[in-house]
Specification:
Distance between the termini of chain A: 32 Å
Low-confidence stretches of chain B: none
Low-confidence stretches of chain A: none
Radius of gyration of chain B: 19 Å
Order of helices and strands of chain B: HHHHHHHHHHH
Number of helices of chain A: 11
Number of helices of chain B: 11
Distance between the termini of chain B: 21 Å
Strand order of the largest sheet of chain A: 6-7-8-3-9-10
Mean pLDDT of chain B: 87
Structural class of chain A: alpha/beta
Largest sheet of chain B: none
Helix content of chain B: over 70%
Mean pLDDT of chain A: 85
Number of strands of chain A: 14
Oligomer: heterodimer
Chain lengths: 318, 257
Amino acid sequence: MIETTGLRKSFHMGKGRKSTTVEAVRGVDLAVAEGEIFGFLGPNGAGKTTTLRMLATLLKPDGGKATIAGVDLQEDPGEVRRKVGYVAQGGGTWDEVSAEEELVLQARMHGFSKAEAKRRATAALEAFDLTEYAGRRCKTYSGGQRRRVDIALGVIHAPQVLFLDEPTAGLDPQSRAHMWEEVRRLRENGMTVFITTHYLEEADVLCDRIAIIDHGEIVAEGTPDALKREISGDVLAVTLNGDTPQAVEVLGALPLVNKLEVLEEVGLRLYVDSGATAIPQILRVLEASGVEMDAIELHRPSLDDVFLTKTGRSLREK
Amino acid sequence: MKAVKLARDTWLIFQRHFLLVGRSPLYVVFGLATPVGYVFLFAPLLKLALKAKGVTTYTQAFRIYIPGLLTVMAILGGAYAGFGLLRELRTGIIERARVTPVSRLALMLGRALREVVWMLAQAAVITLLAIPLGLSVPIGNLLLAYLILAILTLFAVTLSYAVTLTVRNEAALPPMINTVSQPVMLLAGVLLPLTLAPLWLVSIARWNPFYWATNGMRDLFNSDIGASAVWISVVIVVVLATLTVTWSVRVFSRLVR
């Protein structure tokens, strides 16, 4: 449904001699199947929103190719607009207008007649559980209601593909769960949903497949489970109380530690084949070298670990 | 076919923006309060100030003053139009429209026409208020003056759009607008006609399109439809509005794919 090869975009910052070029997206290859919920993960500034905006026809790619719902993005962005819906992170509604009026206008902008626009607006209000507030001005809506209006606006023309930029950012857990339900429901109706997110739980629970982008390039792609399986073995999270450099030195020298990451000042993540056998050794080594430890925790690799190994950064830090 | 779609989409955007005027009573109240205040407060002053020029009645005073006031409103109303556009670009309202097949040009024209129509509505209110106070204008002349005002507003609005979209800095705009609009208004002779001014000031003012528009409207209010300032002002505003509409459309479509 979405296919890209070598999609590129760079921005020129500043003017004159001080100008620099930032390569925001440097060759993205993606393939999203029909009816899939595809998650696009990455740290801030990694290029996820730029990629999304290119696919949604808002930015002209510098190079590469993209086909969306069978239409070439570069050749016919106008036709792509008929087939996709886009919901920006901040939404985009007038405060002084009601959800119903917004939906009618949106449908009219898609070219529908007045009567058809009205019919679609009514159906959308029903579908997104907004009928009760249909006539109230948008400024009176809660965060969750606003978000539902935004999505209803994005799908008023029944697009084949829906792009959602951080759909649950800033929502409380209940509204977030509600939003996931909406996204799943859209998929059940045959829509392909492409979302960017920086919530790993969202990627894990909601998305069929995910891609991780870092420095403008895709560094991992697959189902959440497959990506987690790629990191074989267990993860040990160690919280130190003292000499971190020394702990890194002695633990890094242990043959059973496959990989070691330093988190903040006192946290270490050790990737080992078997946590159960590694813990006693680690305790011994740390004691012998005189480094005190506050806690050690064993867990199966999470998406955060995938993220950490692929990008060298943790998403949770933010 | 393309023209039909453009007209339909422009109408759509225009309607929405006109609805927004009605939805903000404060906008309406303050939009009218200042000019209405000026009508009541400044006209008596003007009658006395222009005594030397032979102004003895309120009718004469209003015929000089109302056209000047309309020019001020066009300059200021137009200058700040870019603000609204910038805000809508920031809040994602325009972005949402961009992922629909709606005409890009209509997104801008619909907004600009709202400003023009709203300006005409304000002008009508002011004229109606001044009539019982002594203003009298032949209806044909008045309508022609409104046409000049409409095109003048379109010029000011689209100039504001083009400059705002080029600068794209909300903080820099108010001082910029102040710096430009003060001398422009003064040199248009909006409050006091420049017939009172020394010659060198008049020769500078001759380069100011708003000066011509003000004079053209004044001649129309004075029932002097044959005066040269009338046709000169029509030509000037039409040419300038054509240029700024073209310029703003270019800037806008470069920004908004």
